[in-house]
Structures are given as structure tokens and as C-alpha cells.
Amino acid sequence: MVNTPTQEDFANNPAFEAAVKQSVNALLPQIREEVRQEMANAGGAGGGNPPETIHTWLEKFNKQKPRSFSTLSSPDDAEHWIAHIKKLFEVLGCDDIFKARLATYKFEGDALNWWKAYKYAKGGDNANEYVATLSWTSFHEIFLSLYFPLSEKEKYEREYHTIAMADRETST
């Protein structure tokens, strides 16, 4: 007959307890390092920092008191607003993946109504997924195509060329 140890044999055995404690203490540094690496890989950030989410960025963004955008009286308003938002993103070091959502968070009135309709047209029931994957460059182009139409761009270009020609004529 084989005499196998039972749980009670180990529970009150000081030598066993010491061996377990020594093994655990020897493994702790390795376990800590593996957990740290796992957190860094899962979060996409080094040093074991928790991953940044849209909520983290929204808090940072709002602390900068960004201007809202609702309607415009001239296409310059769109350019000025976009420049203001871009400046905030540069200062914050904001990741591209969050920029479109943060910018549209500041839409109100007509701009908000347009944005809701636009993102639904693009994403349907998955509109939020569409926005979550929308790059800043794409958003910037979409925004300016609506609020700074081609006809306005051409008008400004004609004005610029007229001024440039007048400057050349007066300088010769």
C-alpha cells in the first residue's frame, strides 16, 4: 500500500511552509516583470502606464477650454476654428485616433445636426465605429469641404492672385 501525503500533512509542516515561501519569494520578481510587460503590451504604452482612452483625452481636451463650433458667418470662421483645435492637439500631443471625436464633441447647433446626419450616412447603425476609425486628415477634409467649399477657395485664390499681380506691377 502506498502512503500518499494528505492536505493535513502539509498544512502543519513548517518545512513545507518554508519551502513554499522560499519558492514564491524567488518567483515574485519574475512574475512582477511579466505582469509589467503584459500591461505595457496590452495598453500600448511603456512603463506600465494604463492605456489612454477617449475619456482620458476628453478630460485633457476640455481643460484647454476649446471653442465650440455651430455655424459660421464666413468660411474664415471654419479655418479659424480648425486652426484653434489643431493648436490644442499639438500642445496636448493627442493621438490621431482621438482627434475627430474630440473635435466633433465641440459641435453645436447646425454643425452638430450636420455631423449626426453625416456619420449616420457613413456608418448607419455603426456610426460610432465609423467615427472611432476616422483619421484627423479625413475629418479635416470632410469638414472643410462643407464649411469652406471649393467656390470660396477659388474666390480667395483669385483675390490672392489679383493682389500678387498688383504688388508685382508696383514693384517694377
Q: How would you briefly describe this protein structure?
A:
With 172 residues, the chain is mostly helical. Helix content is 74%, strand content 0%.
Tag the structure with descriptive keywords.
172 residues; mainly alpha
Q: What does it look like?
A:
This protein has helices at 7-11, 14-43, 54-63, 75-92, 96-105, 109-123, 127-132, 136-147, 150-171. The protein has a domain at 54-154. It is elongated and about 105 Å long. 10% of the residues are buried. Helix content is 74%, strand content 0%. With 172 residues, the protein is mainly α. Helix 4 runs antiparallel to helix 8. Keywords: Nucleotidyltransferase, RNA-directed DNA polymerase, Transferase.
CA-CA gap between termini = 115 Å
- Along the chain, the helix and strand elements come as HHHHHHHHH
Helix count from the secondary structure assignment: 9
Give the helix/strand class: mainly alpha
Query: Strand tally, please?
Result: 0
Beta-strand percentage range: under 5%
What would you report as the Rg, rounded to the nearest angstrom? Answer: 30 Å
Mean pLDDT: 82
Query: Largest sheet, described in full?
Result: none
How much helix, percentage-wise, in residues?
A: over 70%
